[in-house]
Amino acid sequence: MSVRGAAIWAMSSQYMAFAINFFASIYLARHYIGPDELGLFSIAFAATTLIAVLQDFGLTRYIAGEAELDDRKIRTAFSLSLVIAWLIAFVSMSLAWPMAQLYELPRLMPVMLVIGASYLLVPFAVIPTALRQREMDFKSNTMIEVGASLANAAISISLAAEGMGALALAWGAFAQQVARALVSQWRNGFLFPWPLSFNGAKPVLRFGGGSSLLVLSGSLGEKMPDLIIGRVLTEAAVGLFARANGLAAQLRHLVSGAVTSVFYPAFARVRDRGEELGPPYERVVASYCAVTWPSMVGLAVLAEPLIRILYGERWIATAPLLQWIALSQLCFVALPLHVELPILLGRMKALIHRNFLDTFASIAFLAAGAMVSLEIAAASRLAYGLVWIGIYAGFLQKLIGFRWSAMLRIYLQSGIAAFASVAPILLIYAFVQGPAELDFVMMVAGAAAGVLLWLITLAVLRHPAFDEIRGLSEPFLRKLQEALG
C-alpha cells in the first residue's frame, strides 16, 4: 500500500471512530453523564492508565521500525508483552482501594477495578496491530478501531441507561479492549505464539525500556492534570476539564493524528534508503499545520456555541477551558513526530532527557494554575505549549536537518490560513449573532464559508499542503463527476 493510500485509510479509520465516540459522548452527556460522573471516571482512568500505559513496552514502535523482523523476534515480543502487561494490570488493580481512600471517593474503587481488568486484554492486540501497521495495512487498522469504538459506545450507553454512571463508562472501556483484541487477531490470522519464548529478549528489552520511560513520562504529563485537579478542586471540575481536553484532543487526533502511524514506517523507509529527512519533514509539518491549525482556532472561536448546542447548558462552563486548551494545540502540532523520529534515528537517551523536562513543565504549570482557578489551569496549557516548543525545536532541527526559513514560512502561511478560516464566524459574531445567541444554522454556514476561504487562502499563498490536499481529493472528485454523469 502506498503512503498516500495508507494515509487515506488511516484518516478514514479516525473519522469513523471519531464519529462514533463523538456522538456517543454527546448522547451520554445530554441524557446520563454529568460533570461529576465524568470527573469520577476521569480520575479512575487517569490513575489506572498512569501505570498501565507501560503495557505496550514500546513494542508497537519496535515491530514497526525493526529493520530485520523474523518469527523469533515476533514470538519474543509477544511473550514479553503478555508477561509485562499482565503484571502491570494487576498492579493497577491493586491501587483501586488506596486511590479511593486518598480521594475519599468509595465509588472510585469499582471503576478502577474494571478499567484495570480491561488491560489484561491489551497484549492480544498490541503485536497483531503493530504487524498490520508495519505492512501498511491500514484497512485492517480501520476495522480494529471502528470495531473497538462501536463496542465501547454500545456498552457505555446501554449501562448508563440503567443508571450505572461512571461504572458504565468503565465497562465501555472494557468492551473496547475485548473488541480490539478480537478484530486485530482476526485480521492477523489469530497470532498467539506458544509456548512463550524469551530467546533474544535483550535487544527488545533495551528498546522497550527506553521507550517505556518515554511512555511513562508522556503518561504523567497527560494524566496528572485530572489527578491534580481532582485533588485540588472537585470531581465536577475534573469533568469539565476532561470534557474540554478530550474534545480538543479528539479533534486534533481526527485531523492529523491518524497519519502519524503512516509516517513512522514511511520515514523508516527513507532512513533505510539513506535519503535526507529534512525535505520530507518540512512537507509533513506543512500538512499538519495547514489542516490542524484552522481546526483548533475554529474550535476556540466556536467553543461557547458548540458546547451549548452539543452538550447542553450544564456543560457551558467547559467553554472558556476549551478555548485555552484548543489554542495550546497549535504549539504541539508545530513539531510533529517529535518522539517517533528521534527513536527511529537512535537518539533515545537525548529524547528521554527532554521528555522528562517536558513532563515537569506540564505538571508544574498545571499545578500552579489549579491553585488559582480551573480557568487559569486551562490557560496554563498555552504557556506550557510555548515552553514545549523551546524544549524540542533545536533538538529536532539538528537531528533532522530541516531549514528554519522553510519552517517559518510554513508557520506564517498556516497562521494566515487559520485566521481566514475563522473570519466568517468572527464577522457573524460582530454583525449578526454573538457567541451566546449563535444557532446551529449560522454556525454551519460560517464554518462552511470558513472552509472555502481557507482553501482559497492556501491556493493564493501557494502553501505546500495545497497540492497534497488536491492530490487526496482528486479520486473522490473524479468518482463524484462519474456519478453525476
Distance between the termini: 30 Å
Q: Report the sheet-strand fraction.
A: under 5%
Unreliable stretches covering 5 or more consecutive residues: none
Query: How big is the Rg?
Result: 22 Å
Overall outline: globular
Number of E-type strands: 0
Multimeric state: single chain
Q: Could you state the order of secondary-structure elements as H and E? A: HHHHHHHHHHHHHHHHHHHHH
| Tally of alpha and pi helices | 21
Describe the structure concisely for a colleague.
With 485 residues, the protein is mainly alpha-helical. It has helices at 3-31, 35-52, 59-65, 71-94, 96-103, 108-118, 123-134, 138-161, 166-187, 201-232, 235-255, 260-272, 278-301, 303-311, 318-333, 340-344, 348-370, 374-400, 404-431, 440-461, 464-483. It is built from 21 helices and no strands.
Write the layout of secondary structure elements.
Elements: H1 3-31, H2 35-52, H3 59-65, H4 71-94, H5 96-103, H6 108-118, H7 123-134, H8 138-161, H9 166-187, H10 201-232, H11 235-255, H12 260-272, H13 278-301, H14 303-311, H15 318-333, H16 340-344, H17 348-370, H18 374-400, H19 404-431, H20 440-461, H21 464-483
Helix pairs in contact: 1-8, 1-11, 1-12, 2-4, 2-6, 2-9, 2-10, 2-11, 3-7, 4-6, 4-7, 5-6, 6-9, 7-9, 8-9, 10-11, 10-17, 11-13, 11-15, 13-15, 13-19, 13-21, 14-15, 15-18, 17-18, 19-20
Describe the structure.
81% of the residues lie in helices and 0% in strands. The protein is built from 21 helices and no strands. It is mostly helical and 485 residues long. It has 2 domains: 1-219, no CATH class; 233-478, no CATH class. The model has no long low-confidence stretch (mean pLDDT 84). It is globular, with a radius of gyration of 22 Å.
